[in-house]
Amino acid sequence: MKKFLTFLTASLLLVLFALPVGAASRAELSEASREKLDTFFSNFAEARVGSFVMNNEIPMDTFVDFGVQHNIINRKYDLVNVNEGYWGVKKEAVDNAVYKYFGRRINAVSSRQYKLTNNLYLVPKASGEGLVFAQVAEWHENGTDIFTGVANIYSASSGFTGNVHGTAEQWRKEAPEDVPALIGRYMFTVTRSPADADRYVLVDWLGK
Question: Which residues are paired to 155 by β-bridges?
């Protein structure tokens, strides 16, 4: 059944890409739209979310690992300083991150990577990790609040100071010794957030 659903969703994606109501390349999007979409997709890129179709089929581990990583990277102000070696990520914060970015209500539990203890996920403190970010490359408006497209995933050093919304040409001029590398491309489907019509939630995320 799951293989059939995967095939059906992949087929739907092909149809949606073939019949867009409105389509735009990155260059055709406004600067504000590019930056908004880049930021949205970077949340999944930096958390190393792998390919999936239909987010109701995602294993709980994927949701939990995303929620923990998102909070570690973007919400350091809300972490619990457990001791010299570990941060604590609140269970509530993980639940909220999953709802915000996937539109799914979950009751987070332990994953294989992160154990839940006293409503905290314990995460080793670390520094110097490389920067991973995304840029929207194609954006298709398919009607009825369904959007598809392609996002490029880049990796740079932890010391990268360039504009993550910039172009390869700009990066080469600004810091030729630290030009972000293209490490992946994902086809996506997003829809309007159930909580905020100005936001999106991720439905499909398929590596090319």
Answer: 132, 181
Tell which residue, 121, 116, 130, has the closest CA to residue 164: 130
Q: Would you say 153 and 49 are in contact if contact means Cβ atoms under 8 Å apart?
A: no
Q: Is 23 helix (H, G, I), strand (E, B) or coil?
A: strand
How is 52-101 classified by DSSP, letter by letter?
BSSGGGS-HHHHHHHHHHHHHHH-GGG-EE-SSSEEEEEHHHHHHHHHHH
Tokens of 79: 């972490």
Q: What token pair was written down for 42?
A: 């970077």
> Measured between alpha carbons, how far is residue 35 from residues 7, 134, 165, 173 in Å?
32, 10, 6, 21
What pLDDT score does 55 carry?
82
Q: First CA to last CA across the chain, in angstroms?
A: 23
CA distance 66 to 44: 8
Q: Which residues contact 33 (CB under 8 A, 6 or more apart)?
A: 139
Q: Decide if 137 contacts 25 (C-beta within 8 A).
A: yes
Residues 140 and 16 sit within 8 Å (Cβ to Cβ)? yes
| pLDDT average per 10 residues of sequence, the chain (208 residues) | 44 45 83 97 97 88 96 95 94 97 94 95 84 97 91 94 94 92 97 91 94
Does the global pTM surpass 0.90? no
